[in-house]
Amino acid sequence: FTVFEALGSKLQGVFDRLRGRGALSEADVNDALREVRVALLEADVALPVVKDITAKVRERAVGQEVIRSIQPGQMVVKIVHDALVDALGGKDAAKGIDLAAASPVPILMVGLQGSGKTTTSGKIALRLRGRERKKVLLASLDVHRPAAQLQLETLARQAEVTSLPIIAGQTPLQIAQRAMETARGELYDVVILDTAGRLAIDDALMDEVAAVKAAVKPHETLLVVDAMTGQDAVNTARAFNEKVGVTGIVMTRVDGDARGGAALSMRAVTGAPIKLLGAGEKLDALEDFHPDRIAGRILG
Ligand code: GDP
């Protein structure tokens, strides 16, 4: 994922210098840590998260054990790796979408307009139909932009799943309830509800999402955020989690040239785990989020 490339090459530079060394002084470790801190800040990682990561690394790395070990450089890399995994949500984070509930399982998709929410709804539908053999119903609750409803219909066709027939004049709540009734009657396994997005967070958007959430009681509420928006993605996630509550985050456009720091800040700042990554416009460009694999890629 290109969003982690810049951070990765900076950190690899720092560690290449440490790796070959047979002995490290406390000053060497401190120098390296200073460079790690700069690299994280330049990658747009939130300051409290940078502090947390470097404090953890310092605590473990400055110990005599590292300085006396035969390959101290490797040990420091391992310590940074573990700190990155923690920041990304921990080893056991993100088990993908949780469908462990009575069918039909409602999944609510929320996020700002342009974040990739509708595309991601299509991607999830394709994955659940294909890999998990689920019968999936897609429904657009975006009554503000009729084009959005048509877009979801097109995506449903591409993903070879059903979309709820559009009835003009219904409210988002009515559409959501109709989707659930249809799904119960026709024995669907999963209902994906794509809500309306706005260009910015406002009370009307939050109230609308909260009302649908209260009525449908989704098993997953997935927030879609655009990695290209950096720290704004983190602020968006915090606001959504405070106002409606989310069970997971899908970060899109990790194929772009943004700095990947938002991914590292997300868990600490919002409390919600990243579950999936969107890595392209095509419907199969959806990846599971594995903190250890991402940390591994960043450190090369
Ligand atoms: P929505 O307004 O949140 O529903 O956003 P859309 O799903 O309509 O997506 C907006 C644009 O972003 C579309 O052109 C999508 O093809 C594109 N898009 C969505 N996800 C990704 C992604 O992971 N990578 C890239 N490169 N483009 C994406």
Automatic annotation (TrEMBL):
<keyword id="KW-0687">Ribonucleoprotein</keyword>
<feature type="binding site">
    <location>
        <begin position="194"/>
        <end position="198"/>
    </location>
    <ligand>
        <name>GTP</name>
    </ligand>
</feature>
<comment type="similarity">
    <text>Belongs to the GTP-binding SRP family. SRP54 subfamily.</text>
</comment>
<keyword id="KW-0547">Nucleotide-binding</keyword>
<feature type="domain" description="SRP54-type proteins GTP-binding">
    <location>
        <begin position="273"/>
        <end position="286"/>
    </location>
</feature>
<comment type="function">
    <text>Involved in targeting and insertion of nascent membrane proteins into the cytoplasmic membrane. Binds to the hydrophobic signal sequence of the ribosome-nascent chain (RNC) as it emerges from the ribosomes. The SRP-RNC complex is then targeted to the cytoplasmic membrane where it interacts with the SRP receptor FtsY. Interaction with FtsY leads to the transfer of the RNC complex to the Sec translocase for insertion into the membrane, the hydrolysis of GTP by both Ffh and FtsY, and the dissociation of the SRP-FtsY complex into the individual components.</text>
</comment>
<dbReference type="GO" id="GO:0005886">
    <property type="term" value="C:plasma membrane"/>
</dbReference>
<keyword id="KW-0342">GTP-binding</keyword>
<keyword id="KW-0963">Cytoplasm</keyword>
<dbReference type="GO" id="GO:0048500">
    <property type="term" value="C:signal recognition particle"/>
</dbReference>
<feature type="binding site">
    <location>
        <begin position="252"/>
        <end position="255"/>
    </location>
    <ligand>
        <name>GTP</name>
    </ligand>
</feature>
<keyword id="KW-0733">Signal recognition particle</keyword>
<comment type="subunit">
    <text>Part of the signal recognition particle protein translocation system, which is composed of SRP and FtsY. SRP is a ribonucleoprotein composed of Ffh and a 4.5S RNA molecule.</text>
</comment>
<protein>
    <recommendedName>
        <fullName>Signal recognition particle protein</fullName>
        <ecNumber>3.6.5.4</ecNumber>
    </recommendedName>
</protein>
<keyword id="KW-0694">RNA-binding</keyword>
<dbReference type="GO" id="GO:0003924">
    <property type="term" value="F:GTPase activity"/>
</dbReference>
<dbReference type="GO" id="GO:0006614">
    <property type="term" value="P:SRP-dependent cotranslational protein targeting to membrane"/>
</dbReference>
<feature type="binding site">
    <location>
        <begin position="111"/>
        <end position="118"/>
    </location>
    <ligand>
        <name>GTP</name>
    </ligand>
</feature>
<dbReference type="GO" id="GO:0008312">
    <property type="term" value="F:7S RNA binding"/>
</dbReference>
<keyword id="KW-0378">Hydrolase</keyword>
<dbReference type="GO" id="GO:0005525">
    <property type="term" value="F:GTP binding"/>
</dbReference>
